[in-house]
Amino acid sequence: MIPAHPPLGRPGHHPAATARDLTKIHDMGGHQVTALDRVSLDVHQGHFTAIMGPSGSGKSTLMHCLAGLDSPSSGAAWIGEVNLAELSDRQLTLMRRDRIGFIFQAFHLLPTLTVMENITLPMTLAGKRPDQRWLTEVIVTLGLRDRLAHRPPQLSGGQQQRVACARALLNQPEIIFADEPTGNLDSRAGAEVLRLLQESVRQLGQSIVMVTHDPVAASYADRVVFLADGRIVDELQQPTADRVLDCMRMFDPMGDA
Ligand SMILES: Nc1ncnc2c1ncn2[C@@H]1O[C@H](COP(=O)(O)OP(=O)(O)OP(=O)(O)O)[C@@H](O)[C@H]1O
Hints:
Layout: E1 17-28, E2 31-43, E3 48-52, H1 59-66, E4 74-79, E5 82-83, H2 89-99, E6 100-103, H3 115-125, H4 132-141, H5 157-171, E7 175-179, H6 187-204, E8 208-211, H7 215-218, E9 223-228, E10 231-237, H8 241-251
Parallel strand pairs: 3-8, 3-9, 6-7, 7-8
Antiparallel strand pairs: 1-2, 1-4, 4-5, 9-10
Helix pairs in contact: 3-5, 5-6
The site of adenosine-5'-triphosphate has 12 residues, from strand 1, strand 2 and helix 1.
Organism: Streptomyces chattanoogensis
Domain ABC transporter: 17-254
InterPro entries: AAA+_ATPase, ABC_transporter-like_ATP-bd, ABC_transpr_LolD-like, MacB-like_ATP-bd, P-loop_NTPase
């Protein structure tokens, strides 16, 4: 049964993404693994939300269910006002293409297109024209100005990650899902990416959900949600790296995170 629509804050004002009682159980040949256990979460519009937790706590599963890349065993997920369970496969594909941005480790860059073509592809597909000022700012800040004519196989892993970032930010989708966006960047390039993500939230009202293991990366967010054993166990508002680290130690005493 699909639960009723989540309560709304103001008429016409939905969270950017909503999880209600999301449960995901994997069947491993008769052995059941509960990856998510009745998780409910409102991802606020125009906020930068980080998801943290020990390895195996369910972070990726939560993000995949919220982004329509995986379907829950029970419970429901919404993007804006749309219940993902009510969409056909085609509608879900269009939703992911037009309304959601992805910054994932598996970059999904198209190897035969140039960097510039990759960055502008979602807008081209949606028949939209990029804002030239924002395009320039994204390209310059991410250090891609000299790489625009290259193709992804000619770039390092970190450069490819920055192209994926530029592509998601340029399109200004309703929500961006980022999985370890600074995972293979050095600390300076990582800080630039995080500052740009933060700036897009503060100046453009972008909504971002980021999975990270890094307390410093999480400190750029407005809010950090902590998962352990498939459940939300705590959250911090306006986090600092030290407070994030304290929370991580509490929920991951083995230092696995
Ligand atoms: N396809 C699958 N089949 C079986 N079990 C799975 C599958 N995907 C995830 N799991 C299990 O579900 C749990 C949550 O996995 P998930 O990848 O969401 O955790 P995570 O917090 O993102 O971990 P990490 O930080 O290591 O990436 C783990 O116990 C994992 O082994």
